[in-house]
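User: My instructor asked us to take a sequence, write out its structure as tokens, and then describe one feature of it. I'm not sure where to start. Here is the sequence I was given:
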Amino acid sequence: MHSVSGIVVAVFAALVLSACSTASTAREAVTSNLQGAVGYAQDFVGRVFRDPRTQEEQTWEEITAFTLVSRVGDRLHIHARGAPLTGSGTVDLRLLVRASAETLTQGYSHFAIVHVRDRNMPVAGRLFGTPVYGSQTVWIGSYEDYVANRYERDYAAAPRTWLRPGVAAVVVMLDEDDRRSRRAFDARAVYTSLVVEGGY
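Assistant: Let's start with the prediction itself. The structure tokens for your sequence are:
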């Protein structure tokens, strides 16, 4: 009697273990199939909605959408702007990218910013006999100089800067053999760093 009950218990245990093993295998198969289906769906959506443009083309399209440029001799007059709440740093980078691209297109190698004005500055500027803010000629030939100038502009900027950020600048283009180019932006290096290498 004991041997029969032992056999029954053993058979029952074997059936339970087999059922658990089968359920585990089935669960793994379902999970694997779901993961495969999700991966296929993601790949399919990625291929269908993938932007065919290169990163450089996408960056350049954004730059041209948010900047305007006109040339006067060896000078460029550039307006760069941003959407509401766009940081002033982003607007400045747009200006630098457009200046570098136009400088190279016009056959020059370097550029410097000789005048820059935030379009949201108070009309009166500085008071008490000092020059109107933004009226002075400057020489900005490095990113550090530009950041320092931006801090000065931000200090006096009106609150609407947050809603309509923008900057206007006059840029002088320089040949490589011009002595002033040693104190100016290298247009190729700026464009490569911000657009080609994707730092922008």
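For the description part of your assignment, you could build on this observation: Residues 123-133 have pLDDT under 50 and may be disordered. Try explaining in your own words what that tells you about the chain.
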